[in-house]
Amino acid sequence: MVAIGVDVGGTKCLAVALGADNRVIDSLSLPTAPGIGVVEEVAELCTALALRVGEVATSLGVGMPGTVSRDGVVYLAPHLPALRKLPMREQLAQQLGIHVAVDNDATCAGIAEWEMGAARQCNHALIITIGTGIGAALIADGKVVRGHHGFAGESGHHIVLHGGEECPCGRRGCWEQYASGTALRRMANGVSGEEVLLRVVKEDAEALIVLEEFASWVALGLLNLVNTLDPQVIVLGGGLGSSAVLRHFVADALSQQMPPAELRPAPLLVTAQLGPEAGAIGAALLGREVIA
After folding, report:
1. How many CA atoms lie within 13 A of 99 on its CB side?
2. What DSSP assignment string belongs to 226-252?
3. 134: helix, strand or coil
4. pLDDT tens, residue by residue, 44-73
């Protein structure tokens, strides 16, 4: 018997099957279906992946990019705007007849890194995913912090510049408008974040200037979170955040913005270990916890 986890992204849904030892047995992905069709797609991925590995799926966990309540209702997904107050956990449980858990995608990635990756054995950790947007998972006193409604961790929508760039959430000046992959592309005049990092490695002067500015915005948001949460470790993950090059620049920028070490010890800043499967792995772990 296996646990299935699905990470729903703005463009792709990735499903993994975990064995009893939490090892990834197999994976499967599809382009993200439009609108509420994503519910049916997640159900199909779960069924198809269980058939591929020849096992019965005992549980399903789903990571969604947005605010997800404790009972698995997707209230808002800025990068999937058609999804509003979608009772995803209930609908999937009815379709599949198995235990289902639904949570924020960054929270799922954070669970994976905390239980199996870069934040393992840390009681106070902050996991930040930097990709199209920004997500966060918060670990305090050895527990995942979800907040009263389940919405904790929407750090990408902290306002860092009043009246700044417009955000898909409807407000202006959100952190992810200055510290996400989307923001880096804008700063680099349409050049992708991955290309900017490659040019930095080649010591391209313009790319260096852009990445230094970008890293300063990342560090600004991290400093606000450090002052609020006092983490032992910060894990940078996501498609862009997992870059060792970016971590180096962010570490430099954060050290410049932090108070002197003798007045406030800085948290350890590391890159994620589980790669692009972290969100799906964490979702599978979350689903397994439902029936534990």
Report:
1. 14
2. HHHH--SEEEEEHHHHT-HHHHHHHHH
3. strand
4. 999 999 999 998 899 999 999 989 999 999
Q: Are 64 and 286 in contact (CB under 8 A)?
A: no
User: CB-based contacts of 282: which residues, under 8 Å, 6+ apart?
Assistant: 5, 61, 63, 107, 108, 109, 110, 111, 112, 113, 115
- The SS3 call for residue 253 is helix
Distance CA 144, CA 222 (A): 18
- 101, 286 Cβ separation under 8 angstroms: yes
CA 4 to chain centroid? 18
What's domain 121-273's architecture? 2-Layer Sandwich (3.30)
pLDDT in tens, 198-227: 999 999 999 999 999 999 999 999 999 999
Nearest to 26 by CA among 51, 43, 59: 51
CATH architecture of 2-109+276-290: 2-Layer Sandwich (3.30)
pLDDT digits (tens, 9 = 90+) for 260-279: 988 899 999 999 999 999 99
What confidence score (pLDDT) does residue 289 get?
A: 85
E strand intervals along 9-53: 12-18, 24-31
